[in-house]
Amino acid sequence: VRTTFEAISAETVAAEFRPEIAFLDLGLPSVNGFELARRLRGQPGMNGMVLVAVTGWGKDEDCQRSRAAGFDLHLVKPVEPDQILDEVRKVPRGVACCVIASVRQHPHSA
Predict the structure, then answer these.
(1) CA 28 to CA 88: how far, in whole Å?
(2) Counting C-beta atoms within 10 Å of the first and last residue's C-beta, which end of the chain has fewer, N or C?
(3) What 3-state class would DSSP assign to 95?
(4) pLDDT (tens digit, 9 = 90+) per residue, 58-104?
(5) Does the reported pTM lie above 0.85?
(6) How far is the C-alpha of 60 from the C-alpha of 30, rounded, in Å?
């Protein structure tokens, strides 16, 4: 598992780590999750990655924007751990890693 707190580092980590599943917050600073999804989908070898939007945005148009950006799933916060596990279980066996890009503050930041 790799965790980042903004889109640019998430893009770099994904390129190096090559996750099979990525959970992305849509409300990221600088580059939002929609743009990050488009960028990840544009990287060689990343088309098979499962992209999951995890967001507070739950309107129909938000879900449509997620799909258009390349997300496979759109989960609305608060998301229960069991819900995440249920979604991950739907992914083919052998997938065991993810990248999480979140606006939550890093635990070691001041």
Answers:
(1) 22
(2) C
(3) coil
(4) 888 999 999 999 998 888 888 888 888 887 777 665 443 444 444 44
(5) no
(6) 24
